[in-house]
Structure formats: C-alpha cells, structure tokens
Amino acid sequence: MRAELEIGGAGRPALACRRARLAAGAAAAGALLAACSLSMRAPEVHMAGVRLGGIGLEGGLLYVELQVINPNRFSLETAGLTYDLEFSDPGGRDGWVDFAAGSFPEEVKVESHDSAMVAIPVRFTYSGVGGAIRSIIETGTFDYRVRGVVTIKKPVRSEVPYRRQGTVSLAGVR
C-alpha cells in the first residue's frame, strides 16, 4: 500500500514539512551567526600620537591620533567611537586631569588583521592642561589614559569598551 499526502483537506503534512524546514533553516542561520559573534575578538584602541593643529593666546587645537586595530579574520566597520582622555597631573584630582571627552561619529573600516588611524580634533585651554604642559616642558613626555566605546556596525552590531594607558613623547607614543 502506498500512502498519499492530502493537500488541503483534513491532514496538512505538506504545510507542516514546509514549516519544519523553515524552522530548521532559521535555527541553522542563528547558530552560524552566534558562532561568528563568539569568535569575534574586540578591536584594540591605542593612542598613537598627538599633533599640534594650532595655538593661540588662551589655548589651541590638538589632533589626538587613535589607532583602531582589528585582530579578526574579517573586516570591521564602526559607526563611531566615544573617548574620555585624561593627562597625568600630580597636582590634579587623583593625579589626573580631564582633558577631553566626546564622540567621533565618523565611520571607519578596518580590514582583517589591519589597523586604521583616527585623528580626533580636540580644543584645549592652557589652564586645563597645566600639569601635562609642565611635564612636556620638563621631560618631553606626558602620561595619558583613554577609555571609551567603539560601536561596531558590521559584521555584527555591538558596543566594545576600551581602556588604555601609556606615555606620549614629542617623538610619539612609548
């Protein structure tokens, strides 16, 4: 005896099979997406340098250069990043002075196992960076710490916090 499927009528095996295939496909796609997101490593953000953009009587403009490093096998696209930059100041609150905070809403694409530079324009006043200016004049260096969030747009939308501390000299980052 041969069984025949009824289309329409009381039994709906054809519709049930179609739904089962769709559910299995959705589950497989979800598992693949989850596996990809689990293997994504967070990008690293380093302060690469500081360039003087201009100076005036009360302050000036610096370009803080951040390097975004992609340790992954696939390219990343960011929707932007936030930053909170502090300079060492022995006379300041807890030894640090707030220098600049804000967001950089520009998109940045970083290819796999590569890096990209982001130059953030930062206006400053001399009174706001007193300790760092003294340190640069006396030693040619200053200590910094920076933290923020990189908003990843592709391959999977996510927000990745970063935190870095180091020393900047007039010749570059140490």
Describe the model.
The termini are far apart. With 174 residues, the chain is of the alpha+beta class. The N terminus is likely disordered. It is built from two helices and nine strands. Strands 3, 4, 5, 7, 8 and 9 form a six-stranded antiparallel beta sheet that branches. A three-stranded antiparallel beta sheet has the order 1-2-6, with no helix packed on it. The longest helix is centred in the N-terminal third of the chain and has 26 residues.
List the helices and strands and how they pair.
Elements: H1 13-38, E1 44-55, E2 59-70, E3 76-88, E4 96-104, E5 108-110, E6 114-125, H2 130-139, E7 141-154, E8 158-169, E9 172-173
Antiparallel strand pairs: 1-2, 2-6, 3-4, 3-5, 3-7, 7-8, 8-9
Count up the helices: 2
Q: Please, what is the average pLDDT?
A: 76
Order of helices and strands: HEEEEEEHEEE
Low-confidence regions? 1-9
Distance between the termini: 82 Å
Summing up helix and strand content along with how strands pair, one would put the structural category as alpha+beta
Shape: elongated
Largest sheet: 6 strands, antiparallel
